[in-house]
Amino acid sequence: MTDTARVDLLLKYALAVAGQEEPGNRELGAIHLVKYVYLADLAYADRHGGDTFTAAAWRFHKFGPWSTDVYTRIAPVVAAVGAQERRYSNPRYEDEAVRWFVDEETLADSLERELPLEVTSAIKRAIRQFGSDTTSLLHEVYRTHPMLHAAPGDMLHFEPAERVAEPQVDAYQAPSPTAAKQMRTRKAALRALRERVQRRLASPRTAKTISPSPPPRYDDVYAEG
Question: Is 138 exposed, middle or buried (0-12, 13-18, 19+ CB in 10 A)?
């Protein structure tokens, strides 16, 4: 069951940390906030045997990890911290039509005392690297190990990366017709997803754009996973 109090802490902290950045990176939209909470949960899970900090249910949704439980806490959190809101027209990306900014110098320090070090470090590092740059942030979360071992629509699992076993393929055992058909269908879906992701992430929307290294994997091992 999702720990709402912990979700709220992470959302407040992400807004507070972003508020200390240079102009242009201070305003975060819903898509940024959800992804920063995901990265915090991932960092915590790597230290705690796969258990996340918020216990939120994460799913491979569209172009990245998504949790409805996290998303629905954004509105009450921005109201609670008195975040400034900016709206603008963006018909292609509705989730980014609203962004928020917190101008409170001491908020991050006070919240930091309530959060584990691995969580605060993950959020600080990610915000300093990506800020409100949606494209590079999506590249980053898309190549995390819970995403690489899931298919669109799957729930995400946060076991530490070193414990996630690669699927074993018996080279001497031919797959059944049903299994072969399922594999072909999966591969076709992954190819279509790859093309959609690349088209969207390649769209020049910000001045700060990086290419992932290494790039996301779309091979037979990923399809089997």
Answer: buried
So what's the pLDDT on residue 142? 94
- Using the structure block, give the residue that is written with the tokens 């990610």: 126
Measured CA distances, 196 to 48, 155, 190 (Å): 34, 20, 10
- State which H helix or E strand residue 87 sits in: strand 84-87
105 or 119, higher pLDDT? 119
Work out the angle at residue 55's Cα, subtended by the Cα atoms of residues 49 and 56, and round it to the nearest 5 degrees.
Answer: 130
Alpha carbon distances (Å) from 149 to 61, 141, 164, 193, 221: 14, 13, 8, 15, 9
Secondary structure in 3-state letters for 112-164: HCCCCHHHHHHHHHHHHHHCCCHHHHHHHHHCCHHHHCCCCCCECCCCCHHHC
Residue 19 has pLDDT above 50, yes or no: yes
Q: Cβ(10)–Cβ(36) under 8 Å?
A: yes
pTM over 0.85: no
End-to-end CA distance of the chain: 26
Task: Calculate mean pLDDT across residues 65-75.
Answer: 97
Domain edges within the chain? 4-164+175-224
CA angle 144, 38, 126 (to 5 degrees): 75
Greater confidence (209 vs 113) lies with: 113
**Total residue length of the chain:** 225
